[in-house]
Write a structure and sequence with these properties.
The chain is α+β, with helices and mostly antiparallel strands. 50% of the residues lie in helices and 7% in strands. Helix 1 runs parallel beside helix 15 and helix 5 packs antiparallel against helix 6. It is extended and about 95 Å long.
Length: 490
């Protein structure tokens, strides 16, 4: 078979995501704190970018003079494209052969649409978070080991034991494993482990839940023997609330069993919880929603976000043209292009976030009036069609964004719910169904808890038609035990 080379022409369309468009898309999904960090980084790296300062009368007259001079040269208003990321067009285009010398001044004169101020701004909550280095569980245990009356050999072994304690406070290695690693007798390791189990927090270094609770029960004073008895031999019966069986086995009264069960429920199953090494995540809402009569007003939280502008010094340098060397002019143009694109991307991010938030408030107005029970089913497509954007854009702009409402702070994604169709034709959100299930279980008789199938029948009476497995899934999500473990036996 002969091979040959030939040339051919073919016309095709291909979507190319430019670095500028990638940046615009990235900005959409940044949280407010991440956006503030990015702006600060750009201010440090780009000399043509600076934070907007309060305008003085002298600066105002100077800026007006420059604008007037620029207006004489060319009317280029048509160069401003208002296409947003995620629209039907789906891209932000950077015009070819663009005249940045004329563009920089005009774009700076455009501002975001004035945000709506809902009522007295003093009502808007302030957030002051102070960070400090959090002591980890291992740090706390090693400090106690160092301050205790231990020999150097015991401290070395103790360090190994503490190193095998997880963040919840449980020992993850067996005594035999530690003894083999250190070439010591298991009795030596066991003796030191019992001393470490006396450390704070109470219950630390246990090997399972039962041992953890027993370690804590030792500190309950006169109740310790009875509590230890129940933990040692009747934990499964306590879980099933089979108090009659416990009474027969222990000769204790039912009231006494209930009292001891209450004490056990107050013990900490994860002693290391207060020393969690996870960094706290502070929520700063991106959007405020405030009630104004029968309506709800939406405003963006712009506090702490610097307003950006192009440096006047570099604008004037670029306008001089011939007075600037070739490479310098090219560098300034490149930095100006990056600065203006960042400003435009932030502008569109804020405008898109505002439009999405307004659409959510419109769809979920019943929630703001009635609470979770009024939450209606809502999907990305509903908001996308309402504001004429793509679903992927709605997904990005609702990621890590929070809304401060009269009913609390919610992630924007909270308002998007799957749901079921009711018999009357209205939809009901999954969160509202979960609340209904929770209310039903709270009102049940403790001695005759409702099965999942019984809950299905009660929901049908409320015109909510869902399957038994769906009820079970929602119940587990709510952290509610099945009926067999909720039953209070007589």
């Amino acid at each position: 078979m002969a091979l040959e080379m030939k040339q051919s022409m073919r016309l095709s369309q291909q979507l190319v995501i430019t670095p500028q468009l990638q940046q615009a898309i990235k900005l959409l999904q940044l949280s407010r704190l991440e956006l503030a960090d990015l702006i600060q980084q750009e201010l440090e790296e780009n000399p043509c970018l600076e934070e907007e300062v309060e305008e003085t009368p002298e600066n105002a007259s100077e800026s007006q003079g420059e604008l007037h001079e620029q207006a004489k040269t060319e009317d280029h208003g048509h160069e401003h494209a208002n296409d947003e990321v995620g629209t039907a067009q789906g891209e932000m285009k950077e015009p070819a052969n663009f005249d940045w010398e004329n563009y920089v001044d005009t774009f700076n004169s455009s501002e975001l649409e004035p945000r709506e101020h809902a009522g007295n701004q003093e009502e808007v909550p302030t957030y002051e978070n102070f960070l400090r280095k959090t002591e980890t569980l291992h740090d706390h245990l090693l400090w106690q080991l160092g301050m205790g009356d231990f020999s150097n050999q015991e401290k070395e072994l103790g360090t190994t034991i503490i190193g095998n304690i997880d963040d919840d406070g449980y020992l993850t290695a067996s005594i035999e494993e530690i003894a083999a690693e250190k070439n010591l007798a298991t009795q030596t390791v066991g003796h030191l482990l019992s001393r470490i189990q006396d450390f704070d927090p109470t219950g630390v270094a246990a090997r399972d839940l039962k041992e953890c609770l027993l370690l804590q029960a030792r500190h309950l004073g006169e109740d310790a023997p009875d509590v230890s008895l129940l933990i040692q031999y009747h934990l499964p019966d306590l879980e099933r609330r089979d108090y009659v069986k416990i009474c027969k086995a222990t000769m204790l009264s039912e009231e006494r069993i209930k009292e001891l069960a209450h004490l056990i429920s107050a013990l900490e199953p994860k002693p290391g919880r207060p020393f969690s090494s996870e960094a706290p995540q502070y929520i700063l809402p991106d959007v405020f929603v405030q009630k104004n009569g029968d309506d709800y007003l939406v405003s963006l939280n712009e506090d702490g976000l610097p307003r950006l502008q192009v440096s006047n010094f570099y604008r004037r340098s670029l306008m001089k043209g011939s007075d600037v060397a070739g490479q310098t002019k090219e560098y300034i143009q490149d930095r100006l292009r990056a600065a203006m694109w960042l400003i435009k991307s932030i502008h569109q991010r804020q405008r898109t976030l505002y439009r999405v938030a307004k659409s959510i408030v419109k769809f979920q107005k019943k929630f703001f009036n009635e609470g979770v029970s009024g939450l209606r089913p809502l999907i990305l497509k509903d908001v996308a069609e309402d504001i004429e954007m793509h679903e992927s854009t709605i997904s990005r702009v609702t990621t890590n964004k929070y809304m401060h409402t009269p009913r609390g702070i919610f992630e924007l994604k909270y308002f998007f719910n799957s749901g079921v169709q009711q018999d009357d034709g209205d939809g009901m959100a999954s969160e509202a169904i979960k609340l209904t299930i929770k209310n039903i279980i709270e009102k049940e008789e403790s001695r005759k808890p409702l099965s999942d199938q019984a809950i299905v029948h009660l929901l049908k009476a409320k015109k909510i038609d869902i399957a038994r497995r769906t009820v079970a899934k929602y119940r587990e999500t709510l952290g509610i035990l099945p009926s067999s473990k909720r039953r209070m036996k007589s």
